[in-house]
Design a protein that fits this description.
The protein is α/β, with parallel strands linked by helices. It is 33% helix and 26% strand. Helix 1 packs across helix 4, helix 6 runs parallel beside helix 8 and helix 11 crosses helix 12.
């Protein structure tokens, strides 16, 4: 007998017919003798509608009331799935975040999980009751409902799996697993049988929307085996596991891209000690996340040009902060939204040289200019003009041997 956490996203529970399909999947696990906890998202489109209602009711809304409203979608799904399971002869009950309880901090809208008390839920699991939990929501120290941010049900599921010491956490979605790149761009993209936590973390943070970044980090920290698979087919999914479980590691496992980047360049900045802190400090104070950074110093060393990227939605705020800052003097400020970040990812890069050179040569052969470069132990990212996105992804996917006919 295994203990399994199953998580179903919004498209998987979009209507009652799909909820019945989900119930059948859950019943199969129960019939196989497994203890099952289920985490559900709101029905597809529900959260967007709830957010719109909040903003229409009060543009400058109270974040605590925002969480009260937008968390209600998951409550509906949890109740409906529990009823559907009962109708199929499966003992089941629903749980809300405060009933578990899933304790969080007080940062409404993007709360962090601090502790989960699964004592009561474990008793129900031992009594062969399916526990259906509303994802995305928790309870703060001041007894207010909190939400974990978009995609937070993934984090709810992984956190619950860790607390319950589950054998596996299955994330059901509208894709069949984790692919070497976006199949909509590269038809020859391959589904990976296994991917490491680190690779998945890089993919999730660099544009692959299969799993929420925080959920992957939590799975890695707690050693939770995660499986990504489709709600609509019975094909095997992709296991997200520790690097030690993957015997033969490819040099490159995937190509990711992120279109939500924007570039800012400060020309003619005085090259003095502490200038970077004066530039990035005010941005950090206003919660602007700076990513790629490149600095070019003039020949005489007195001036520098500084280029960096921020989320596209923060470009106006960022330029306004810099323009109003009296601590930084520069000749010109330029911004550009028409950029994309392309990343080559793979744990095999640790032990193989030449990946960067091959990536740069491939882009050069296609006439694609690299604007900014950043690297980590298992990733190389470049910023290029957005118009070359598909050309770059396809070329890199082929040159690193990831096409399905090259496997």
């Amino acid at each position: 007998m295994s203990r399994i956490v199953m998580k179903f996203g919004g498209t998987s529970v979009a209507d009652l017919d799909r909820i019945r399909i989900v119930a059948d999947r859950v019943k199969r696990e129960v019939d196989a003798g497994n203890q099952v906890a289920v985490v559900v998202s709101a029905m597809s489109g529900t959260t967007d509608q709830l957010v719109n209602w909040v903003e229409e009711a009060s543009p400058l809304h109270d974040a605590r009331e925002y969480d009260t409203v937008v968390s209600s979608g998951e409550q509906v799904t949890a109740g409906l799935l529990a009823l559907t399971l009962q109708n199929k002869g499966v003992s089941a009950r629903s749980w809300l975040g405060w009933q578990v309880p899933m304790k969080t901090n007080t940062v409404h809208g993007s709360a962090r999980i601090e502790d989960i008390d699964t004592t009561e839920m474990q008793k129900r699991l031992d009594d062969d009751v399916v526990c259906v939990m509303a994802g995305f929501q928790g309870i703060s120290s001041d007894n207010r409902i909190t939400t974990l941010g978009r995609g937070g049900s993934d984090t709810s599921a992984v956190a619950l799996a860790a607390a319950l010491k589950a054998d596996r956490c299955d994330i059901y979605t509208d894709v069949e697993g984790v692919y070497t790149t976006d199949p909509r761009i590269v038809s020859a993209a391959r589904k990976l049988d296994k991917v490491t936590y680190e690779e998945m973390l890089e993919m999730a943070s660099l544009g692959a929307k299969v799993l929420q970044t925080r959920s992957v980090a939590m799975a890695m920290n707690h050693g939770v085996r995660v499986q990504v698979l489709s709600s609509f087919t019975d094909t095997p999914g992709t296991l997200v596991v520790d690097e030690e479980e993957i015997v033969e590691k490819q040099v490159v496992s995937g190509i990711a891209y992120a279109k939500n980047e924007a570039k800012i360049t400060l020309v003619g900045v005085e090259n003095t000690p502490g200038i970077a802190g004066k530039i990035f400090g005010p941005l950090a104070d206003d919660n602007v996340n700076v990513d790629m950074i490149i600095q070019n110093i003039s020949e005489d060393g007195k001036k520098t040009d500084l280029t960096f990227t921020v989320p596209e939605g923060d470009i106006e705020k960022s330029t306004e902060i810099l323009q109003k800052s009296g601590h930084v003097r520069y000749a010109k400020l330029m911004s550009d939204k028409d950029v994309v970040k392309i990343s080559v990812i793979g744990v095999g890069m640790r032990s193989h040289a030449g990946v960067a050179a091959r990536m740069f040569e491939t882009l050069a052969e296609k006439g694609i200019n690299i604007q900014v470069i950043s690297t980590s132990e298992i990733k190389i990212s470049v910023l290029i003009a957005a118009e070359y996105t598909e050309l770059a992804v396809r070329a890199l996917h082929t040159v690193f041997g990831l096409d399905s006919d090259q496997a």
